[in-house]
Amino acid sequence: MKIAFDLDDTLIPTRKTFSSGSRRLGFPLVLIGPEDGFHPDEVAYAEEVGFATVSLGPRILRAETAALAAVVLAQQEMGNLALR
Question: Considering the entire predicted model, what is its pTM?
Fold first, then answer.
């Protein structure tokens, strides 16, 4: 699974990107852009090479914070943070 997180809050939310079968897909490839978001050409290219572009929500995060948030969301949705 390839996911590009962007600032655009009109994109689909993260939760709708993951399907019930996501837990079997292994590790996702996560793409994080600069603090002011991706250029539209970068978004188009990411989609062209198979990334689903999704929103991290309405708040602007620093790049390093966005990366951590994206990984935690991906792990939660894929079941990697579930209590055993």
Answer: 0.67
